[in-house]
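thread from #wetlab-drylab

HS: before we spend reagent money on co-crystallization trials with magnesium ion, can we at least see a predicted complex? here's what I'd submit
DV: go for it
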Amino acid sequence: MRLSQMLFVTLRDDPADAEIPSHKLLLRAGYIRRIGSGIYAYLPLMWRVLQKVSQIVREEMNATGAQECLLPQLQPADLWKESGRWDTYTKAEGIMFSLIDRREQQLGLGPTHEEVITAIARDMIRSYRQLPLHLYQIQTKFRDEIRPRFGLMRGREFIMKDGYSFHVDEASLKETYQDMYKAYSNMLRRSGLAFRAVEADSGAIGGSGSTEFMVLAEAGEDEVLFTEDGKYAANVEKAVSLPINAESSRFTTYEKRDTPGSETIEKVCQFLNCSPTQVVKNVLYQTVYDNGMTVLVLVSIRGDQEVNEVKLQNELTKLASNYGAKTIISLNVPNVEAQQTWTIKSLPLGYIAPDIADEYINNGKQIHPQFVRLVDQTAVDLKNFVTGANETGYHVVGANWSEQFQVPDNVVDIRKARLGDRAIHNPEQTLQSARGIEVGHIFQLGTKYSLAMGATYTSEQGEEKPLFMGCFGVGVSRLAQSAVEQSYDKDGIIWPVAIAPYHAIVTIPNINDAQQVEIAQKLYTELNQAGIETLLDDRDERAGVKFKDADLIGIPYRIVTGRAIANGKVEVVERATRKSQEIAIDEVTTTLKQWIKAAIEQ
Ligand code: ATP
Ligand code: MG
């Protein structure tokens, strides 16, 4: 392609609304254009990158025996009602765009395709002989994200590869899951990315067992905890660890103490001269279930620890049926105004004990009259602990479970693992922390959707059984941008060769020099014919401008038909290292071919 014929517009300055380097660079270099909040046009250079990523994804998927298809983006609401996700997705989480057609039928724009694929499997899979089966597609997804940001990283319209597998049993599902683990690792390695596979929370999609593939970058929205020995890595949402040991308590007898102005752990510890590891902290949450029921939650945890709200939400979701509900709509720490909606009298905030009376809750119709009390193991393990006295200005010290306080029914792990904690598999290893961008997520769904939607098969023994399912997603557009987030310098993008829009750019420093033009054109043709995807910068611009643009758009190799042509050579510059060398004109193609091959096979 000749730059003179392309829609080639680069910006000198950073666009005002872009926060992270990759977003700024893709806008500046003319790869993408913002059309609306979370909505972007993929301009020709970007589209080439996306095609390359898609091709790598496709090759790795096909190599596992998965088959490509294309499912509808317009999805009838009825399917989502069958799985029970319509209300959660359109109202509670509100992530799905929904619409009503001219026949007054409700439809959703696909944020994901479990329902569609399960409906197909229900109709078309009859026998164990057809299994296992794995279908995938590469397609635009729609999600009405609360906070679209960072360009393609969190769009409202983005490209995803999603695959769904069907199995006779869990063992077969696990096999495919392992194959996907490898395929995903291959995709990311081939795309030139530094990544980590981590244990993940399965979230609203449900099921058990999932792995996220994280591209390591400071701008990542996720925190990853891992050990040096490579044996443990998890998303902080899911991570487990051993907390530091609690100090033994300096209080041996139970008594109530006057602790004025000590409503935080820090203050009470200062006042009583004790360690936060000797305190049972009681944190209040408010959750609303999908049937509108508000439930107040009291979490007891060791004073130096924090609550992991993802784990908490999962525990509360497990309890949903106690309240006649299926899932949770919201979970938060209620502020004073929120508390006023359900308290009869004001709570002794900062002085709450694990047994705070249910009488604080007014008997509203949509409000459960009792606290649900959850206690983290770190709090259960304490002896002679300090905690609130349920009275403003007072704490108790030297308290013990089964003496002054009953251990709540729900002993759970809702503690946030953190940097520096000891690892469970080997306490000598401590957890390290890194930021990551989630580009892929593989799940073992099990029978969640097949049971809900009645997707069964006939087993070898002639029994009708629910299909086991797996689902496997890659954010193709997010992956492409992550590559930039991981690889750029002050002058612009440095694409990994495997996903660069073009391999090479031939730059003519002076288009009024007939010899420069002639050699450049000849090389341009020859390189393209040899399968080296090459641009020709034949614009009537100063050489400096052309070099800057080539650096900005990040093409791996720049070939300059400058002074060296007098000696039958051209200058070849490698974008990543800025290494420059003069190469004989008739050796350029073979040399580049080798370099590119080596770079892609890395
Ligand atoms: P996230 O946790 O980032 O919101 P998710 O867990 O909802 O993502 P999945 O449903 O697992 O995502 O989707 C599969 C993949 O699609 C993700 O791993 C991610 O790479 C990509 N993805 C998800 N949401 C977006 C988005 N809004 N914009 C771009 N890519 C996305
Ligand atoms: Mg996720």
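DV: The chain has three domains: 47-240+433-484, 255-412, 502-601.
HS: ok that's useful, forwarding to the group
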